[in-house]
Amino acid sequence: MNVIGSLYFYVCAAVAIAGAIATVTARNPIRGAVSLLVMVVSIAGLFLALSAEFLAAIQLIVYAGAIVVLFLFVIMILGESSSSVHDKKRIVSRTLAAALLGAVSLGAIVLVVGVSTPLQAPRIRAGFGGIDAIGRALFSDWVVPFELSSALLMVAVLGAVAIAKGDIKRPLESAATTPGSASEEQP
Amino acid sequence: MLLMFALSPFLVLGGGALLLMLAEVFSRRPSGLAIGTTIVFITSGAFSVALWLYGIEFLPVGILSPWILVDKFTLFFNVLLCLGGALASLLAGGYLVEYKLNRGEFYSILLFATFGGMMLASAGDFLTLFLGLETMSLGAYALTAFRRASPRSAEGALKYFLLGSFAAAIMLYGIALVYGATGSTDLARVGAAFSHGVVTSHPMALIGLVLIVIGLLFKVSAVPFHMWTPDAYEGAPTPATAYMAVVVKSAAFAMMLRVLLTSFGDAESMSWSAGWPPALAAIAVLTMTVANLIAGRQDSVKRMLAYSSIAHAGYLLVGVVVALRSKEQAAAGVIFYLATYTVSTIGAFGALILLGSYGKEAVSYDDLAGVGKRHPAIAMAFSLFLFSLAGVPPTAGFFGKWFIFRAAMDSGFYWLTILAFINSVIGAYYYLRVLVFMYMREPQPGAAIAVPMQSRHVKAALLLSAVFVLALGLAPTCTLDAAIAAATTFRM
Amino acid sequence: MMSLSETIWAVVKILIMVGFLFNVGGLLTWLDRRQSAMIQDRIGPNRAVIKVFGIEFRLGGLLHPLADGVKFFFKEDFIPPRGDKLLFAVAPILVMAPVLALIAVIPFGDKLCVDDLWRTTDTGSLLFPAVPRYGSCLIPVARGGIAAIDLQVASLNVGILYVFALAGQGIVGAALAGWSSDNKFSLLGALRAASQMVSYEVTIGMSLVGALMIYGSVRMGDMVRWQGDHAWGIFIQPLAFFMFFMAAVAESKRIPFDLPEAESELVSGYFTEYSGMKFGMFYFAEYMEVVTSSMLLVTIFLGGWQLPFLHRDGLTIDIGTWRALQLPMNHLTVTAIQVCTFFGKVLFLCWIQCFVRWSLPRFRYDQLMKLCWRILLPLSLANILVTGVVYLLLDHAGPVLGNTLQMIGDLTQAVVAIAITYFVLSIVIGLIRPTRRTSWVVGSTAKLAQRFGGTPRSPRMQA
């Protein structure tokens, strides 16, 4: 990789990591969503560097254009109530657990990177990752999983419709509430 | 054409679901949907049987390999899943009408989720495996949230959805690591890479293996990953609960067997010193014990059945651990156990459904007091299913447990067998407690009494389940032979 | 690395496109006002004046956009005190930037052979060579020539997907603008904008699939070339054209789809709190969106830079196998005509969009959503199915049908050519024909008032 190529990679990677950290640490959910957008866009940049143009475009269309917008939408509808909750419950144990998990993951990564023999990436053909190549692959070698994924989409749509169509007005089980459910957690 | 035939169980299910969706739009009688769904399930199952009889070795492999493997293991599970689905849709036919939830999407989701389950059982590649898993899981999430008016339903569905998505993500990460190490998502090729010692050159394969196993354990709701189960099972409409306890769990175990025995089935990964069996054995013990102990303390029968299904996952995991010594025996035991578990669990939930009606649900033990005298037929059926779940001869459950325990003994896992046996004794306590309430208690004066619903659909489902429970208990040979034949898929 | 000449050409292409976008975007604000005045039967912008030696220059109101710009720069830049200041500042950029970046993939001319534009002969005189219709330039790269350059800022592999990817980013800007303003009207406007744009983006994408199937490419340049060889997209995918047109208007949030900024309901929607140049960016981005959507429409459905029968090697009129006329032309002329054609078509569509804006009433919000999800989306899906089936059938039909189709395609070109000629002629005639200069009033209402001896005419009135 030449100098500009590596520089591009490092810039994109740094921005992606910064965006990810900001997403997690942002107190304001909208800021979090915007940080997520930053991360998504820089990952699309990384895809471009891998000459996966189609993936980069899809990343932008689906994640930046639809999913982040959906997040924004939900946060905006929920309004202020969603933006100022600071859960301090068991903060110490949670932090400790997160630190432990992070340390273990980091250790695992270091171990793996240290011990592994480097993988030889195959040389890519011209047009790799373009829309033609992806389309050809999807409809020849990978046609079975591609078609099967329609069942996944179908069931997702159906599920959304089934839940959305439900009547929320009629109380169904007024008397039969057992302890240990959601009612306790209300402040 | 033969390819179409090979795919026919899938095609029937998918096409039937689409047709039912159309029918729901244009029909005036939504109650016919349950029958239609049952017919679709039965047709799909019949095609699987036809394929079995035709002989899988005559089927073309073509473009299906390695995505969808049509072998005897797949076909057995296809029949089992379709049976579970058919019974669940019959239950739904009564339940949804009674509780005024009769929206046609339920049946289409049921069909598509089963489609996902069949994909899962037949997947020969991590890609289709994951697709199937998500198809099934999304359907199950939607079914759990189906009672929109109930906060409990929403709570259960949300927990299930969030934890399930996490588990799927963890598993996907594991798959990605394994793919990175082995360069393939094909289960068989991953297995080959593992037996050639990919773990030593690329340790990330090991991390991938761990993550995949965690994802698998979550889907079968084994004990440290079971938190979602009671809430999801309790919040869901009861037919959906039965469906999840039966079909989702069976498909998850099919996936587990296939992945563990094909991809991670090399000598190194399956060894007691360096592989997954000891971890799985520990989790099996934990699952059985914890679930049984908690199940005994429940007030709600539905919740008790939920914990009991976790406990059964523990027994099944014992069966999986046996693979250490003999893959075939392990697979056969698990498959047969799943068959017996399917009919008994569906029956138990069905009896619970039949005992209640709108506003007068049978939920707690107290609701069941005196049912034995008021409604002897239902109570008897319920008792039969509970006996089967407890593993009392001559019901189906007895032979299920028998084969797994015997396989464990044969493989030298005496301590595991003993622990499992102790656990089934604990389990018998809370199953019998239901009988005590049904036959030996009288309802408190002035307390609400559960009134059975009138539904031919549910009755038919109960009758069918009872027939299967008795048939599997009295004459298990035929099914057992089929299970053993299905297990030959893993002969190496 | 790029050579020097390539860099220069890239800069030139960017300058052409951005310059066109900015200028036309600015002019559209003027056109919009003139158009509305004409349609509403009133006098348009006529107050901005430059006075030189006592002579007032009005230039038909063209000075108004200039005055607007000056106002934007000098107005107070108000930031809501309780809003999110960072996001408030970022939002206009997020709205503006995608529109600017979008024009990168739009081709405004055919491949240009730089060496073949002109050449000096040995005797020192200039020579304008012609290039063949297909194939490469006269001097190939191997013999020291410069490779043909695309008249397109960036010829991307993913082509149209790049457009979709960018179009999605504008939504985030609108949503953030509304949220960070700390104003209920803004928030409502943002919610409306986000849901409307997300919904219509689906239609935009789906309506194009049929056209993409026929063109067999997602590269804009290939699409235009296909249309030149066969027939314009509007004749092949008429339904898709209208759906795309509608959805594009909805995407730019203009009347009749301007609910996110409906003045009568939401003050001015998600940019209520904006002032100064930040407001200017929203305002200007809207007009630039009109230009870019016109460019997309022209490229995908109206043959891009193609003029009927004008090919790379000159004017050739073919109807089926019958050659009516052949007139070779040199490369420089052809390229110049084609580039002008492209921009002319874009201007025409911009004018249509302005016309639509002042002709139609606003939708209600539920109607808007119904139109998208219940009419346009199913129609676009049906369009894909029908296109696929017909394409399959034609693929299996014999060569006779293919020739017939080619003939029909040529006829459509002829029709377009006649229409363009008529249009141009009537404009020219309209400009040349002497008009009565005595009356300053154009509107019928004013005429009516005059007939009844009502209002006294102001001598400064201009139409």
For the secondary structure, the number of strands of chain C is 9
Structural class, from secondary structure content of chain B?
Answer: mainly alpha
State mean pLDDT of chain B (0 to 100 scale).
87
> Number of helical segments of chain B?
20
**Structural class determined from secondary elements of chain C:** mainly alpha
Low-confidence stretches of chain C: 458-463
Gyration radius of chain B, rounded: 21 Å
Helix fraction of chain C?
Answer: 55-70%
Question: What characteristic shape of chain C results from the CA principal axes?
Answer: globular
Number of domains of chain B: 1
Order of helices and strands of chain B: HHHHHHHHHHHHHHHHHHHH
How much strand of chain C? 5-15%
User: How many DSSP-defined strands of chain B?
Assistant: 0
Give the distance, in angstroms, between the N- and C-terminal Cα atoms of chain B.
31 Å
Specify the helix fraction band of chain B: over 70%
**Main beta sheet strand tally, sense and closure of chain C:** 3 strands, antiparallel
Task: Characterize the quaternary organization of these chains.
Answer: heterotrimer
The ordered H/E elements of chain C are: HEEHHEEEEHHHHHHHEEEHHHH
Give an account of the 3D structure:
The complex is a heterotrimer of chains A (187), B (492) and C (463). Chain A is built from six helices and no strands. Chain A is globular. Chain B is mainly α and 492 residues long. Chain B has one domain. The mean pLDDT of chain B is 87. Chain C has 14 helices and nine strands. Classes of the chains: A mainly alpha (187), B mainly alpha (492), C mainly alpha (463). At the A-B interface, α4 and α6 of A face α1, α4, α5 and α6 of B.
